[in-house]
Amino acid sequence: MTARIIDGKAIAAELRGKVAREVERLTDQHGVTPGLAVVLAGNNPASESYVGSKAKVTKETGMRSFDHRLPETVSEADLLALVRKLNADPAVHGILVQLPLPPQVDAQKVLNAIDPGKDVDGFHPVNAGRLASGLPALVPCTPLGCIILAKTVHPSLAGMDAVVVGRSNIVGKPVAQLLLAENATVTVTHSKTRDLPAVCRRADLLVAAIGRTEMVRGDWIKPGATVIDVGINRVPGVDGKSRLVGDVAFAEALTVAGAITPVPGGVGPMTIACLMVNTVRAACASAGLPAPEV
Ligand code: NDP
Fold it and tell me: 246 alpha carbon to ligand 1 midpoint, in Å?
């Protein structure tokens, strides 16, 4: 058996197309053009590349992009003042502060200062709490992408045994909450879980968000299961350049799983597409319009 490969790149492109159509409709019919402000402190190369891609896609989908670059030495007070300014700016519907922040800045304090209605990363405790309470919320982008990908294979996740490996606030916990909201039976595992392979083998839907190169082996996977690999791990390639691999041993998994996301080209492209979705949702909510069809 060879698993079906879930084409995150194509699904993300389709989603960005839907967002662009929605942005056009909002602008034409309601005079609302969604705006996303991205704040980058310092010059971490990975962060610069993420921020560049986010700004590019924001513009491509017809939204306004506001770029705020601050020096590595920025003070916490200055960063908080910028967040407050963006909170008050009616042209800004979404605020994203790129992590990690320099060590002199308390990242949680900065995230907590973002207006929850503009918190398009979904990291504010109010949004995390609303998600956990089953209330409408802005939800973290990567977990939202995982659910959209899983639903391309299983339009209903109700009753499925879902196992999430990893319990970070950014991926594992919100994925688990979203799966629960989809009526899956959810098990969340972590570094202290006993006999992780056996727990994973029970999963109809397995989500790996660990940050460990190819830790999930083929024999951890139930035959026919759907596997969503969130991991992005950089390893040395044959030509001296590095390459990206996931948290799942892809070649092994391919012979056991029913469907699987590749790395790269699986969950990764969905993250930015879902950021665009959240920005449109935030813009609609702030204008008192119904939630968009994306
Ligand atoms: P964290 O390091 O914050 O969390 C990792 C989780 O994995 C923790 O809950 C940890 O358990 C668990 N874990 C670590 N080692 C083991 C082990 N040996 N057995 C079982 N569980 C283990 O990572 P993130 O959640 O931020 O990211 C996870 C992965 O997803 C990374 O590869 C990251 O690069 C990738 N990622 C990809 C994104 C995308 O856009 N595709 C976006 C965000 C992340 P414990 O809590 O007990 O320590």
Answer: 11
